[in-house]
Amino acid sequence: MIQALTLILLCQLLGETLARMLGLPVPGPVLGMGLMLALLALSQRVAALVVPVGEGILRHLALLFVPAGVGVVGHLDRLGAQAGWLMLAIVLSTFLALLAGALAFLAVARLTGGGWYGDDD
Amino acid sequence: MMTDFAEIWSYLAAGPLIWLTLTLVAWVAADALSTATGRSPWTNPVLIAVLLLAVTLWGTGTPYAVYFEGAQFVHFLLGPATVSLAVPLYQQGQRVRRALLPVLAGLVAGSAVAVISALWIASALGVDGETLAALAPKSTTAPVAIGIAESLGGSPTLAAVLVLLTGIVGAVMVTPLFNALGIRDWRARGLAVGVAAHGIGTARAFQVHPQAGAFAGIGMGLNAILTAALAPAVLRLFL
Asked: How large is the ipTM?
């Protein structure tokens, strides 16, 4: 487990370093995800180590947003007089974005014959 | 006795232990409630745990900075969790490669609609330009959104608030919406919620189905890149 965590942190560290060095608009951990994906694909040993630990962390992904969420409650007054309008824009736009994303995916999947075969194709 | 308790409290409240513990306690309670209601979208555990803790901080007069001393240990894991998203990508690699074109189509459509519709609706309602700059990247993951908002002249704090609200709205909305429409393809459902509602949407997708979670992770990661390119161009249309 410590070896897996070390690899995960090394990928994040390298990702942060690359993002800063190259001035990329992508956050370090996202680059780190790309590096980890390459490691997993290259080495069975890395995969055997990292897969169970990564799955364990992701099982609790939602918990990790709680501290930032608590911070946001204190800043709700920042929304100011426009709070209602902003909330309406967020709800409608999220609704439309979900629809657009899923429908575009399904339409192209049908066109390219990449249909869905269920849970365990 | 009262003074004893007050002393113990002031000792504990100053250290990280109590706030880390209370963060986990609030989470365990919220998660139990969510499980007891069969993972109903209305009992989103992030939302409930956040409200429980916000009330506790307010009731005890604790500043957020003191709370965060303890909660930072949980917050820090967001980075390693993002790196760990490589795991489902790796496991679902073949399925993802086969769906490459649908993924790109869903990404571009979802990302563009998220930015354009938010700015169009908000500007039609009379929201000012500086606030629009903070709203534009709301569907992307918080660190990217904050960077984009800043470069567009919006407030980073407001951007973080809007990002979190978007995540919770998306996580609550996604399951009833796609059930009502009869969309059963986990790939489409996951990708859409990852693009529209970043990490909180992705966390919701993992609760529902591992395939949805993997595609949500891809959607979130790719949208971080696309929004950085898209948001400045779209914002210019509405200023």
From this structure: 0.87
